[in-house]
Structures
1.
Amino acid sequence: MEIDRNNQVWGGIEAGGTKFVCGLADASGRLLDEVRFPTTNPEQTLARAIEYFRPYSETGRLVAVGIGSFGPIDPNPDSPTYGFITSTPKPGWQQTDFAGAIARALDTPVAFDTDTNAAGEGEHRWGAARDLDTFLYLTVGTGIGGGGMARGRRLRGLVHPEMGHVIVPRVAGDDFPGICPFHGDCLEGMVSGPALKARVGRSAEEVAGDDPLWQIVAHYLSAAIANYVYVLSPQRIILGGGVMRRQELFALIRERVGQWLGGYVQSDLVLNRLDDYIVPPALGERAGVLGAVALALGAGTELRQSRNIRP
Amino acid sequence: MEIDRNNQVWGGIEAGGTKFVCGLADASGRLLDEVRFPTTNPEQTLARAIEYFRPYSETGRLVAVGIGSFGPIDPNPDSPTYGFITSTPKPGWQQTDFAGAIARALDTPVAFDTDTNAAGEGEHRWGAARDLDTFLYLTVGTGIGGGGMARGRRLRGLVHPEMGHVIVPRVAGDDFPGICPFHGDCLEGMVSGPALKARVGRSAEEVAGDDPLWQIVAHYLSAAIANYVYVLSPQRIILGGGVMRRQELFALIRERVGQWLGGYVQSDLVLNRLDDYIVPPALGERAGVLGAVALALGAGTELRQSRNIRP
């Protein structure tokens, strides 16, 4: 890696349940370096992240670190457990003070939010949500999750959105029970990557593009998306994640979202230009780590009131 | 009506598809006077509203007017059609410059939003959403609609929420087709007041409290509410409107929302205190008109950029 030693850098951690991606970028979102490693236990995994950023904090070049994390998390800066991964089913990670550990070890401000809110922040700053203040970022992969902004502020409230767990009506005749341990046949239970694998007995990546499976996937995702439109009235919906790498899904989903909405939402974008309304991430595979960097860029203002994170 | 002639007053218009309620209040939300009249054509109806407020504008006592309107509307102050009722199915009201007509006739600032966002604003200022920044206000009556705030700002985006039209899974064996002209069996099509009347052949007010009808109503409303929780993570959900006057519905809905969520949302409020999470409007029957007054109280800051509404 070559970085001009006088230049400031911002760090990003895309913290997934399977792997961590750590990166460094300049203020324009140019990714200067990136490293990936598996998510094991918190001690080991956070130590690797800290080790990666330490040379930049020691030389005073690291301005802040942003973390887009798997969850559930506590994203509320006013809360005593702000920055924690909370009740996650992932073994060993419950009640982990993720943001605090990074901030103390590197003596740097840390911004912390869900993985999808982080990806949304990146798309807002540099990608498909530029100039929009109300939008959704949905990831469809190992799990299904959603984030984004309402009126220019990242979504959170009682806790944070859990859009993957919405209840959706079944395709007539579909008797797949779903695999969500909490709900069975919620959206994630029906069409996450592992749900598709359980459904067809092999990885969805091996299923042909014209297989009826994709009609089923489009049914459930489009019903959920229509409901997101009714609840939040987003100006755009960005669909990322491993399952959405299957590009032909976009056309199927757009068509069905139009059918579900039934002409009710009177907006040219929804009525006539769904290809400009439901889109892939402009930052592509880097939406996660650049989203975390985007959080870091906002860290100064975000973290003033927080518990244990320096301003 | 007796109002100290030196005191300033704020006007509110609760504009429903069936009736208008106009009221005057002081800055503390004390309702000083109120008038109701049927919603006929726009010329006649707006003239009656203007006539009601004119003595207060002429004497310089009327600071601003807030309007909580049936829709669809354009609630975006940056839009050229801000303040219009737009594509409503209500005959004669399409493309009506509601806020503009009131502002010009009374020469006063006007704040304009959906009926449910207005009611939410009122509950935020004086009622069940005080000290909360992310919450929902849902009305279940002639229609079903939802509004509220995310991170302290009233919900809007591409247009505004249309929460009544969400897709919900059917109760097993329920073959009622639904009455929504756009979607048939969306939430509003299944359990709005008119839907219940179509379902049982008489007004829902005449149906006994232990009738199985209320189990069906609770099923659909609770499924929708669980989805709202997953999408927005509200800190509280306020349920108003004619159908919700049936108080026993609250217990049925709370129980089923808990079942739908399945213990997934880790919050004491949702896990153990649903009676403090899903509540009636604190402003009761006055939530609509006081909500409109609450909009008026914020009119100075809201309307700076707007098209034809004086600052």
Note: DSSP finds ten helices and twelve strands in chain B.
2.
Amino acid sequence: MHDLHVFVCTTSGRHHCGGQGSEKVLQRLRDEVERRRLGHVRTTRMGCNQQHHQGPIMIVYPDGVWYGRLRAEDVPEIVEEHLVGGRPVERLRITPDGPWGSTALT
Amino acid sequence: MHDLHVFVCTTSGRHHCGGQGSEKVLQRLRDEVERRRLGHVRTTRMGCNQQHHQGPIMIVYPDGVWYGRLRAEDVPEIVEEHLVGGRPVERLRITPDGPWGSTALT
């Protein structure tokens, strides 16, 4: 499997990803990566992409796969299927709204 | 040019990217993207990747190109050459240290 860089939005605020449980998503992700010793996976927090209406969100690069409306319980499936197996989890994917190049305000 | 997602570390702290001028790097990037109306470029803040010894850092995905020791004055060259021209700026590239899969602590 090629190296993967997984970003989780943890912007705080009630209507942002942080207010929708993204810290639990990130923690579960890091727990799984650590437990399974996935040396090809790097995890990093990110700021707002103006997608919190479908948050919490996660993006996997270089694949360019966006996930949304995540709960911590969804993470093991993403890890097993996508990060290990190379198959994105279609039911959890989202398409970012708005023009791609819109600059986040935060 | 394919869609690009540019991440700039803005973690605060004297020895972190934020303490080395990364806010000015991000602002200059957003100014250039806005001024040139680069609709294929999205810009997002990111947290720590444990690379602040060569910060401030920026990563361009899906290309997987890491830049380091950036000053705001370096940004127009990255925009012109890489984000518009598709040619990474070799003199500003870095290789992330340490095992890829190391989980950032922040």
Note: The mean pLDDT of chain A is 94.
